[in-house]
Design brief:
By secondary structure, the chain is an alpha/beta fold. The protein is 33% helix and 27% strand. It contains 7 helices and 10 strands. It starts with 5 loop residues before the first strand and ends with a strand.
Length: 227
Amino acid sequence: MTQPVYVLKKVKKIFPDGEKISREILSFDSFVCEKGEFIAVVGPSGSGKSTLLSILGLVDNITEGDYLIMGHQGSQLTEKEKACLRNREIGFVLQNFGLIDDMTIKDNILLPTKYLPSNLRKEAQRRLLPLVEELGIAPLLKKFPNKLSGGQKQRVAIARSLINDPSIILADEPTGNLDAANAHQVMSILLRKHQEGQTVILVTHDEALAKMCDRIVRLDSKALRSE
């Protein structure tokens, strides 16, 4: 039996909120994500959706509880080990695109390859042309982000998240700044990657998009339940 990608139990995330005050952002009993699942995380603003995604992406730590990622105890990973897992196994797609303005589109997409060993870097660079052709952004490689539309920027952000061929894609409101046509295109890309076997976790406020996923995980009043 294949081990789950994520297993979180009895999790709490607490942020300091003043000198002697702390604020509980997340508190739930269990979250399990199987390999190849497409999960939508929904909930009201401030319910901890982006915080959960940051924890899953090894960008943030839990305050209490148990956290397994791909069989590794999250709390026992060194910062170097976390960085390695992030770079090789996790692709992030952000709502605000996260592109660097003074870098060309090509350089933006290839940025995650910078810290790979030379053999893996060359392999990733060979994926560039097929990837940008698949996403319809091949003519944009020499341009800069300020010359692109919102939909084009999001497809560039997706290309950057996929260039290292990650097994996990974490997408934080990737359609939030897009019109209906571009939102549909982005969702189609994520669905296709899911069909190819990648695990996708999508934070969204759009219930219609959420219903296109295998499963909905709902955050409400910092509790988590699966539908």
